[in-house]
Structures are given as C-alpha cells and as structure tokens.
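Quick one:
INPUT:
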C-alpha cells in the first residue's frame, strides 16, 4: 500500500491520531533560571522613548487565556468548519493544530525552508488542490515571515490569513506592526510577560464583536496572581515579599492540599492546561477572559524595556555561542524590528547536549519537538530537521547579567567538552 498523504486523511481520522498523551517528560531537575519572564520589581521599570511595536497596536484586540484559544476563536471568526482546509506549517507544536481539528477542518501541512520561512511555491501548489479557507503563518522565534507576499497571495485567492505571533508579541515589518498583516492574529502573553496565563486575538482588518468573553471566576483570578508571584519566589525574585508572605503561603498550601484530597471525580480546572505547558486544547476556555492580573501587566510592563533587553540578551548569546564546533545560530543576524522570543541554536548532536544541559539545570527547550502524527521527512524534511536539531535558550528581559553569564558558561562547557 502506498504512503497516505496528510491531505488525504479525513478530519475524524486525524482527530483520532491527535496527541492525547505526549511522551512523559524525563524527570529533569528544575532549571536554575526562569525559561519565561519571572515576576520581579524590575518587571515594572520603565525606559524613556517610544514603545516597541506590538500586536496590541491592532485596531481590535481581545484578551484570552492562551494562544491556542485565540487560534480557535480566529478560525470561528473566519467561519472555518467541516469541509474546509487550513494550510498550516509543517514545523509546529500540537497546540497550533488542535484548534483546526476542533473546528472540524482538515489541516494541510506546507513546507518551510531551512531558515523557517514559508515555501511559497509549495503553498501555491497545495492551495490549488483543495478548498483552502485559511492560511496560518508563524513568525518563528520572533523573526517575521515574508508577510507582504503572503498577504498578496491570500488576497488573490480569497483566503484568510492567520498571523501566528505566539513567538512575536513585539516587532514590525514593512512599516507595520507584526500582527497587522493577517486578517486575524494571535499571540501568547506568557512567553513575553511575567504572567501565568494569557493570550490575545487581534485584527487590524475585521471587527471582533462576535467574540464574547466572561470571567473565569474568583478561583481562577486568585490562582493566576498567586502562581505568578510564587514563580518569582522560585527564582529568587521578590525576596522581601516572599519573607512577608511565608506564613500566608504555607497556610494556603496546606488548605489547598486538604481541598484536593477531598475532591471526588474530575473537578473543573482553575486554570487552562496551557499555563503548565500542556499539549491539550480545552474548548471550555473559549469563552473565558484573561485574568485581571494578566491584563494589568500588559499595561504596566514596558514594551520598550522588554524589546531592548531581549535584543541585547540575544546578541550576547549570539556572540558567545557563534563559532563553537558542531553548532551555529539558526539566524545569521538580528534585523531591525525583530524582538526575539528565545535564542535558537542549531546543533549537530542535539539529544546528548539537551540531556546534559537539562541535568545541569540550564533552561533549554525544544519547540516543535513532537510534530503532528504523519508529519515526517516526506512532508517536509526541513521541519523534521529543525524539530530535532534546534535547541532554544531564553533571552527574556527578566534575566540578570550573572544568570546569562552562567548559562553561557554551561552551554559553552557542554559543547566544547563534547568535542575533546
């Protein structure tokens, strides 16, 4: 029997093959440094000058609990449903594809190039073969796609463009903020702000009157606030507040342990699984508004400071890790208007290096580690290569200079030690 193309598989079959229980992560120790921004007093520092461009500059913005929820709501606004096809990148995480399955549509995976830009020729071929309703384009790691070309492509064919800014909350291209090129755009607040949950749906071209959101309740609001504060405590931030709250937090933890022990059956989650790095998509959060804490932080945190420090930290990692044997930065330069999510490093022997760094408590992650079932080298060799070989290191604004120096030392030591 010949190999079945992803485009030939019915939506129900794809849904059945979805990642219900991804491989359990290895029991590595908690990283010494925060992978994402951790709340500290420095989070509230301001920098003079204009704010960095952002998806928040769009005409219409709705604040939701995660980027995957925003994708689902965008598809709903587009009228995507059974019988429709959505062009999606072959380099992805499961949370980008699950909303397409939820909508009843068929995901059709297109190729990307080694530098993560879309293969426009492959998109054109696939768009001519089926009923494509929408195209999802991802600005990987904060580096923009050829957005003018994608906008023209979609306009010529009457296709909706969904701009995925989960990695690019800040940035601009062609004189416009990232997020303004798509009919709809989504972002993930958790990757850029010191918050426990959050995402947004935005549009510079359409109204979002049909997106009705409501509070997820006082339990949700309290959990988000406390988890954000506790995450700061865990990484040595807010020491005075931690001392003052030691007794109340101990009482809270004891009470919560009693409550959980007395629960019978499955109780509704107080926060979405995305906040803890889960793969699943839960439609129950489609009508829930992001917490008040997260929405306030989006206003209080300086976008200028965030952008400048991310670029500075990225350059520091680039200078320190370029030229090492068996690896190279994924991107050759840091263009103006790019405010990176992380620093991606392309490695020849990624698995051993990943394990060694994890054991050393280095905050290393792997985006796209688990591709959708059926997406292999025959679908896109570059995507498989990137999912296997790219390791990412944080460059966010809440990292301290000594923490970056320690991380660089650990990474350089591991790479150079492997070549001796």
């Amino acid at each position: 029997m010949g190999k079945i193309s992803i485009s030939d598989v019915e939506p129900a079959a794809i849904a059945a093959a979805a990642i219900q229980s991804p491989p359990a992560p290895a029991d590595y120790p908690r990283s010494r440094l925060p992978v994402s921004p951790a709340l500290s007093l420095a989070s509230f520092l301001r920098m003079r000058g204009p704010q960095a461009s952002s998806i928040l500059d769009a005409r219409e913005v709705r604040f939701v609990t995660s980027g995957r929820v925003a994708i689902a709501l965008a598809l709903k606004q587009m009228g995507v449903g059974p019988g429709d096809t959505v062009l999606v990148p072959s380099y992805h995480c499961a949370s980008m594809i699950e909303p397409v399955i939820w909508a009843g549509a068929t995901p059709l995976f297109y190729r990307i190039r080694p530098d993560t830009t879309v293969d426009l020729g492959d998109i054109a071929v696939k768009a001519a073969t089926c009923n494509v309703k929408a195209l999802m384009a991802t600005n990987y790691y904060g580096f923009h796609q050829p957005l003018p070309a994608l906008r023209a492509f979609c306009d010529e064919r009457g296709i909706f463009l969904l701009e995925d800014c989960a990695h690019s909350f800040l940035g601009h291209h062609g004189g416009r903020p990232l997020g303004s090129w798509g009919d709809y755009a989504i972002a993930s607040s958790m990757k850029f702000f010191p918050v426990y949950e959050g995402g947004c749906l935005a549009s510079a071209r359409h109204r979002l009157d049909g997106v009705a959101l409501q509070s997820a309740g006082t339990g949700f609001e309290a959990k988000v606030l406390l988890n954000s504060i506790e995450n700061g405590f865990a990484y040595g931030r807010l020491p005075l507040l931690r001392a003052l709250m030691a007794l109340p937090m101990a009482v809270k933890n004891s009470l919560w342990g009693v409550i959980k022990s007395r629960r019978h059956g499955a109780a509704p989650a107080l926060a979405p699984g995305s906040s803890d790095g889960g793969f699943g998509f839960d439609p129950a959060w489609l009508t829930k508004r992001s917490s008040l804490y997260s929405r306030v932080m989006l206003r209080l945190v300086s976008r200028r400071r965030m952008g400048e420090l991310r670029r500075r930290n990225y350059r520091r990692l680039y200078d320190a890790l370029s030229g090492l044997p068996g690896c190279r930065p994924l991107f050759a330069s840091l263009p103006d208007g790019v405010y990176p999510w992380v620093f991606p490093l392309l490695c020849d022997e990624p698995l051993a290096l990943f394990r060694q760094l994890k054991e050393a408590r280095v905050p290393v992650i792997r985006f796209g580690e688990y591709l959708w079932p059926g997406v292999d080298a025959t679908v896109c060799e570059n995507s498989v290569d990137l999912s296997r070989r790219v390791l990412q290191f944080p460059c966010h604004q809440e990292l301290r200079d000594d923490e970056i120096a320690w991380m660089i030392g650990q990474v350089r030591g591991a790479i150079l030690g492997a070549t001796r």
